[in-house]
Amino acid sequence: MRKVFFFAFVAITLVSCRKKDDNGNEVNVSPNDYTLSADGLTLIKWTNSSTISIDMQGDSNLRKVNTIAENAFKDLKSLRAITFSDNLKEIGSDAFSGTNLSDGVNFNSYSDVVFGERVFYRSNIRKVVLPNTKALSNRIFAECRNLKEVTFKRTGIIGDGAFSSCGTLELVDLTDAGVTHIGKEAFANCKLLKRAILSVTMNLKTIGDKSFANCTSLENVTILALYPPYLEGDPFSGIAKTKFPTFYIPRKPKDLLDIYKGDNNWKNLVDKIQLIPK
Length: 278
Prior knowledge:
The protein is mostly beta strands. The protein contains two helices and 22 strands.
């Protein structure tokens, strides 16, 4: 009987200690830790420099946020993880640049997310499952030297320098991303990058200048486009000709190999173009 009373007392105590907002809704973050816009839809600034983890969807105020302002979390070294609200639509420039984020970020948005430039620049993020977006902005993950795993959903454009100098990234798989353009220096200086699988069907139009520059570990690039994408400048500069990657293309239609090899823009890579192995 005493044990039952004790556990009941503990349960009541825990419930009574939960934070609530002015309307009686439970919150797990003190409103003193952040600044919101007057309508509560934009997180302007995170003010608690000791915060380690944030679950925006689990908080009655933060789950309403659809926009994170530029510089909102910039250089917040303590922040290891964040779960965004389901309503997220936009993240401003440099919002998380210089943060930790070593335990990851979780996107659950129902909408395409718009990214400003350098959103996660120089953070310690290790892996990420991206949301649907029309564009990954310029230098969004640049110099994220611990970033090893990226899962792409529907993505229209990969901006200039988006993943440049991600020193531990080994695989880029854009199979289902629907990418139409890979920007300048998008994956430049990714020294451990071994494989790249580029978008399917007719989606991929251009591969930007120096997009894979100095990717000296690159072994093969699988191009699933049914028409040769345009190569701007020198996408593979800094890679010795003797160590150039093999370029794999689909086995069907049957004349696709001839189309690639006969394309004037691909003439310098003729000896490296092969059909995808069976």
